[in-house]
């Protein structure tokens, strides 16, 4: 399993100036490569390298590996790169000293040694033991980061004893089939403040942090109870959900797909099974008797079955339906693994049956 670990660099003012100059030069080179690629309609990495390598290496003073990474980046993305986009580094341009928590990194002004970095303890442990491939140098709002790929062993998926259903929504971002609602007035209040101040990046970080927290709590509950996680298949959620105008902003700005991906990768690291189910009518179906009726939802928060009279919070009822579909979906997709092999009659019994058939025929 591949993950991306982010560590924060702590450069001195002189080191920061060298990093900034390197990033700006690399991205100017990338802009030139993108322009040449567009003019010549040349997008394959090999062909684009033949066309631009010598030119950008000479014009911008890039090292050989740095020039090749610039071309590869443009070839992969093919778009004009902005001044704050990441610059890739491999082990020939970047080396790590984990005990000292410093890196040695190439810049256009020479190699910088002893650039300090920091990060959370779990991230630093992953970085020291499982780093693979390239790292990206990025500058965000006055801070420097290295985004590094790590590769960890896959954890075997534990056979689930039932499923924890997750209903995603607007008022409650995520509700579990056990009745836990992950939301709160402070979340929406903070999001409104960010929108009013037009702090787009700050709101994005806020949403990602909330999604990480919710995903961790959901996976921890599933792992503790030995269950899998059943999620809604989110395809077309923005088209199929009908909401009042004030709620549409929340629907279109909150990253439900990000939350689902966080749950999936955290579950994979813990060996928790995840299954995606069709969410059609889960909000209108009674989780007790299975009756489906639009009138079962008299308002946003209430579910009251018109057939059996069962009442529950609407989101909890929907999450229970998702959990039930998760159990059914898992049984169908894994029946070939759980189906017992047919027993074979013993040799003695087979001979006796053969003699009996022979006697009947005679």
TrEMBL record:
InterPro entries with a match to the protein in the record: Cas12f1-like_TNB, RNA-guided_DNA_endo/Transpos
One Pfam family of this chain: Cas12f1-like_TNB
MF GO annotations: DNA binding
Sequence ranges assigned to domain Cas12f1-like TNB in this UniProt record: 256-322
Superkingdom field: Bacteria
Keyword DNA-binding: yes
Alphabetical keyword list: DNA-binding
Annotated PANTHER family: RNA-GUIDED DNA ENDONUCLEASE RV2885C-RELATED, TRANSPOSASE
UniProt xrefs under NCBIfam families: guided_TnpB (NF040570), IS200/IS605 family accessory protein TnpB-like domain (TIGR01766)
Protein's name in the database: IS605 OrfB family transposase
């Amino acid at each position: 399993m591949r993950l991306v670990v982010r560590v924060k660099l702590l450069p001195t003012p002189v080191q920061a100036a060298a990093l900034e100059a390197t990033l700006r030069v690399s991205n100017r080179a990338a802009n030139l490569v993108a322009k040449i690629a567009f003019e010549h309609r040349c997008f394959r990495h090999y062909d684009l390298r033949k066309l631009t390598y010598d030119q950008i290496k000479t014009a911008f003073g890039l090292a050989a590996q740095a020039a090749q990474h610039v071309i590869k980046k443009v070839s992969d993305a093919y778009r004009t790169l902005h001044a704050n986009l990441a610059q890739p580094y491999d082990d020939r341009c970047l080396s790590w000293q984990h005990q000292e928590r410093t890196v040695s990194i190439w810049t256009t002004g020479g190699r910088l040694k002893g650039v300090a970095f920091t990060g959370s303890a779990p991230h630093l442990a992953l970085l020291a033991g499982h780093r693979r491939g390239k790292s990206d140098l990025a500058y965000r709002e006055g801070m420097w980061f290295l985004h590094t790929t790590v590769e960890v062993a896959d954890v075997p998926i534990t056979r689930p004893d039932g499923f924890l259903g997750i209903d995603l929504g607007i008022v409650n971002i995520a509700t579990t089939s056990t009745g836990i609602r992950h939301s709160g007035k402070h979340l929406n209040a903070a999001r409104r403040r960010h929108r009013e101040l037009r702090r787009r990046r700050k709101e994005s970080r806020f949403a990602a942090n909330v999604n990480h927290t919710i995903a961790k709590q959901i996976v921890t509950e599933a792992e503790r109870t030995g269950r899998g996680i059943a999620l809604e298949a989110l395809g077309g959620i923005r088209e199929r959900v009908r909401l009042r105008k004030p709620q549409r902003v929340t629907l279109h700005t909150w990253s439900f797909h990000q939350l689902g991906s966080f749950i999936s990768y955290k579950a994979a690291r813990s060996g928790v099974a995840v299954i995606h189910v069709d969410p059609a009518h889960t909000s209108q179906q009674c989780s007790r008797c299975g009756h489906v009726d639009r009138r079962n939802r008299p308002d946003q928060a209430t579910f009251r079955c018109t057939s059996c009279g069962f009442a529950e919070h609407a989101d909890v009822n929907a999450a229970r339906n998702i959990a039930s579909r998760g159990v059914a979906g898992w049984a169908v997709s894994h029946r070939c693994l759980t189906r017992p092999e047919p027993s074979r009659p013993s040799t003695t019994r087979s001979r006796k049956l053969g003699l009996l058939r022979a006697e009947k025929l005679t």
